UniProtKB/TrEMBL annotation:
Protein's recorded name: Shikimate dehydrogenase (NADP(+))
Claim: NADP is one of the keywords in the record: yes
Organism: Streptococcus mitis
PANTHER family hit by this protein: BIFUNCTIONAL 3-DEHYDROQUINATE DEHYDRATASE_SHIKIMATE DEHYDROGENASE, CHLOROPLASTIC (PTHR21089:SF1), SHIKIMATE DEHYDROGENASE (PTHR21089)
Subunit structure, as described in the record: Homodimer.
A GO term, aspect molecular function: NADP binding
List of catalytic residues: 71
Listed EC numbers: 1.1.1.25
Catalysed transformations (reactions): shikimate + NADP(+) = 3-dehydroshikimate + NADPH + H(+)
Entry binding sites for shikimate: 20-22, 67, 92, 107, 229, 257
A Pfam family assignment: SDH_C
UniProt-listed InterPro entries: Aminoacid_DH-like_N_sf, NAD(P)-bd_dom_sf, SDH_C, Shikimate_DH, Shikimate_DH-bd_N, Shikimate_DH_fam
Biological function: Involved in the biosynthesis of the chorismate, which leads to the biosynthesis of aromatic amino acids. Catalyzes the reversible NADPH linked reduction of 3-dehydroshikimate (DHSA) to yield shikimate (SA).
Catalytic class of the enzyme: oxidoreductase
């Protein structure tokens, strides 16, 4: 990579962020597409967020990505929001269009792009969890024409989740069904009718636990996805594959949300297959 007076910067902003693999993904893409850019990781305090956003204009950057805890906090400093960012209430990509800062959320798009030969339009989905990743998947599914969504959260989180789903219904007219994860018979019923089952919780990162009981049986052809990619195969994915179901981990979501951001910044397509190769070697 040749850095010169014309090199434009992009960065990921979060805390903590030093272990991020986003610099690897984006710098590989800059190089592969002969784009004069460099991508760095900025670990900042909340008190520096306003200045950090101002620097996007000041240094004529491509833009920034945001991760925890700044995806919501960045919104007041932006000029515009895309449809999905408004629905999700969180931004993971800021694009600098000649000094006009536009917030996008590419997580949901990235997630659906990572599912092999699957479109959500007209399909039924069961979603486990209601955190940031779940919200981006939910909102994108509604924008893409999903026919029915069942969200399962632990009963202690029901009251916290409901206001967001009500707001979503107000904005889109789409009613999401909410259930308690402990209600195994309803979980089984909903999964039996679904085309897609997604774990959007962090359960399974320890390599031991699973968000659903092993007694649940999966319908044939149901696609199972986990947003976790470390471990590469979670107990949840192992369980799905044992039943003969196709199963996908979260590495593709990470790559394709980055590809969406890269395209918004540069107008170029990220060479995802090439980068996917090196990513799987790194994490498998």
């Amino acid at each position: 990579m040749k850095l010169d007076g014309y090199t434009r910067l992009a960065a990921v902003v979060a805390n903590p962020i030093k272990h991020s693999i986003s610099p690897f993904i984006h710098n590989s893409a800059f190089e592969a597409t002969a784009t004069n850019g460099a991508y760095v990781a900025w670990e900042i305090e909340a008190s520096d967020l306003a200045d950090t956003v101002a620097n996007i204009r000041r240094y004529q950057m491509f833009g920034i990505n945001l991760s925890m805890p700044y995806k919501e906090q960045v919104i007041p400093y932006l000029d515009e929001l895309s449809d999905e960012a408004r629905l999700i209430g969180a931004v993971n990509t800021v694009v600098n269009e000649n000094g006009n800062l536009i917030g996008y959320n590419t997580d949901g798009k990235g997630f659906f792009k990572s599912l092999p030969s699957f479109t959500i339009s007209g399909k039924k989905m069961t979603l486990l969890g209601a955190g940031g990743a779940a919200k981006s998947i939910l909102a994108q599914a509604i924008l893409d024409g999903v026919s029915q969504i069942s969200v399962f959260v632990r009963s202690v989180s029901m009251e916290k989740t409901r206001p967001y789903l009500d707001k979503l219904q107000e904005q889109t007219g789409f009613k999401v069904d909410l259930y308690a994860l402990e209600d195994v018979s309803v979980l089984q019923e909903r999964i039996a009718e679904s085309d897609l089952l997604v774990n959007a919780t962090s359960v399974g990162m320890d390599g031991q636990s699973s968000p659903v009981p092993e007694s649940i049986s999966l319908p044939e052809n149901l696609l199972v996805a986990d947003i976790i990619y470390q471990p590469f195969e979670t107990p949840f994915l192992k369980w799905a594959r044992r039943q003969g179901n196709p199963a996908v981990n979260g590495l593709g979501m990470l790559l394709y949300q980055a590809a969406e951001a890269f395209q918004l910044w540069t107008g170029k397509e990220m060479p995802t297959e090439e980068i996917w190769q090196s990513l799987t070697e790194k994490y498998q």
